[in-house]
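Why do we care about 3D structure at all? Because function follows from shape, and shape follows, mostly, from sequence. That is the central idea of this module. The next example makes it concrete: a single protein chain, its amino acid sequence, and then its structure expressed as tokens.
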Amino acid sequence: MELSFVQCLRLRLFGSVPVGLRTRPGWGGSLMFYAFRCPEHGLVENYPYGYGERLECPKCLKDEKVE
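And the structure:
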């Protein structure tokens, strides 16, 4: 994933930055995806979860399901 200079700056200042609308198979619409840093996996992107709209690393979520 490549971020512009402005996106990199926003990532450093705010912890996450919007990278665009994405649609996954089976979804009826699209959601905004965000880039953010995972302490274990580095720069990742995902959509906000739940009412609190928390960002969770998709690689960490995948690791939890395997265990």
